[in-house]
Amino acid sequence: MNIALWIVAGLLAAVFLTAGANKVLIPYKKLAEAPGAGWVNDFSAGFVKSLGAIEIVGAFGLILPAVLNIAPVLVPVAAIGLAIIMLGATFVTSRRGEFKHALLDVTYFSMALFVALGRFGPASFA
């Protein structure tokens, strides 16, 4: 179980680090023109940049607390935060009729929930 949680947390960290960096580093107008990023037009540039920064922090929160053994309880907390973000993303993409993208959002939500439940439960760091 511990190995599965590490693998899923690592994959999620890579996904959210990449997605967050894209939101922070790519200009708003260029990001809005990217394939599958039409949702950006529904939100302000400040919100999108803030969301990207939160995703980056969440990505680090999935890995660093456990690796450094400094407040490892932050791992499931970060996973819950990212699950909430993906739940919101699912609603946004579903509302826009982008059901294939919504399915991917549900997958990331499920992965984050798996890490949160596993790290609060049977494979906690305590």
TrEMBL record:
It comes from the Bacteria. It is a multi-pass membrane protein. It is found in: Membrane. GO terms for cellular component: membrane. The chain crosses the membrane at residues 70-90, 102-121. This is DoxX family protein. Keywords: Membrane, Transmembrane, Transmembrane helix.
